[in-house]
Amino acid sequence: MAAAAAAKRLSVAHQQTRFALCLAAALCLAAAAMRLSVVHSPVLSGKITRNTLQDMEIAPPRSDLPFSSPAAIPQRPSMATADDIRLSISHQTRFALRLAAAISSPSKAPATNRAFSPLSLHVALSLLAAGAGGTTRDQLLAVLGGGPAAAESLHALAEQVAHVVMADGSAAGGPRIEFADAVFFDKSLRLNPAFEEIAVGKYKAETHSVDFREKAAEVSDQVNSWVEKVTSGLIKQILPPGSVNQRTRLVLGNALYFKGAWTKKFDASKTRDGEFHLLDGSSVQAPFMSSKDDQYMASYDNLKVLRLPYQQGGDKKQFSMYILLPKAQDDLWSLAEKLRSEPEFLDKHIPAWKVPVGQIKIPKFNISYGFEASKLLKSMGLELPFSGGANLSEFFDSHMRQRLFVSSIFHKSVVEVNEEGTEAAAATAIVVGLTSVGHRMTMDFIADHPFLFVIREDTTGVVLFIGHVVNPLLAP
């Protein structure tokens, strides 16, 4: 029985991975891996073993964030079988393609840099599913990449992410990471004990009793301050003015912060301005980082892929940024379409080893992008949570629980890439209210035209951020 429960727990890691890859094609994704020989992804290759995550030697979960009640926290996640993981991947792949079609098109904003966190969105929506019932719950589970029986897997994934994948590694020289969930609920209501147990125990969520009826503006400021603190000031506002009012009863929040240094930093003294070609045929002068060090690179007929690893800490986690650079200067949208139309494309285009570098040039960039996700999710079939027929009956132990619906879902991400490494943050807020291969040869990588990128943890395959750059000079 323990083995069965264990099997379900980590199949979950891949439900999130494919959710992430879905959002990847959405804002123009980049990369997941099949043939990594140096930094190998046992999840994506199907070669995961019982000891893969048990050997990660993750530091104990942090204890400096306030919780409303104690929860039993497993030190290490259980492992799933390769068959379970492959099944989860297939579910997430289908979701990825649907989301890609919904978001990724040149008409959406062809001259705009974009970045977002599929991890933040996935965790927030999974927490929403924990408070939903009936067909509303089933619809959420289906859109997130599973059927009616997927709830346990979603919550197990959230537990693994909160306690293991997103555990801070800065004390041992790894990336600095903050990851937090929160539930802000009106003081006139009492949380359903079953929901609170999942939120606190699995998601490590803080719970805050607040006064939406009389102090809605102050509560909005409180949520924004919480996000600002978790993201180390990169995101100061997730809830815009007026998004919370006296009819709001609940806000679900997720926030994360990532700061990683490259394994081999770029020499700032070698950064030079160079020509970056835009989609409209014009060009701008942008600062390019350069290096002569061997790099993880792979070249294909119409695509080059570069992997930039971040410094590891004391555990076995390995975070990396992947850059997918189309050969043609105006081929960004064709690459995005290829990701959408070919399910195996991502797994087949990851660098397996280092190659000597002739010339490498990567532009510095700083992206800040936010959006309201309701319309996008409705276009994918997630309609019930936003309607008067929403069943969010599991949040509160109250007769008013049947009158709740999701009024809005806000998401924002910030990603800055420079010679030292990457600093990134993301936040999601769900507002609930009342209804009224290669050879050993020299290779160049000149990212002087639009490209895609993804930041992920390679051991599990969990994707933190995805985006595309069309103009590195655009102000965030």
Automatic annotation (TrEMBL):
<feature type="domain" description="Serpin">
    <location>
        <begin position="95"/>
        <end position="472"/>
    </location>
</feature>
<dbReference type="InterPro" id="IPR000215">
    <property type="entry name" value="Serpin_fam"/>
</dbReference>
<protein>
    <recommendedName>
        <fullName>Serpin domain-containing protein</fullName>
    </recommendedName>
</protein>
<dbReference type="InterPro" id="IPR042178">
    <property type="entry name" value="Serpin_sf_1"/>
</dbReference>
<dbReference type="Pfam" id="PF00079">
    <property type="entry name" value="Serpin"/>
</dbReference>
<comment type="similarity">
    <text>Belongs to the serpin family.</text>
</comment>
<dbReference type="InterPro" id="IPR042185">
    <property type="entry name" value="Serpin_sf_2"/>
</dbReference>
<dbReference type="InterPro" id="IPR023795">
    <property type="entry name" value="Serpin_CS"/>
</dbReference>
<dbReference type="InterPro" id="IPR023796">
    <property type="entry name" value="Serpin_dom"/>
</dbReference>
<dbReference type="InterPro" id="IPR036186">
    <property type="entry name" value="Serpin_sf"/>
</dbReference>
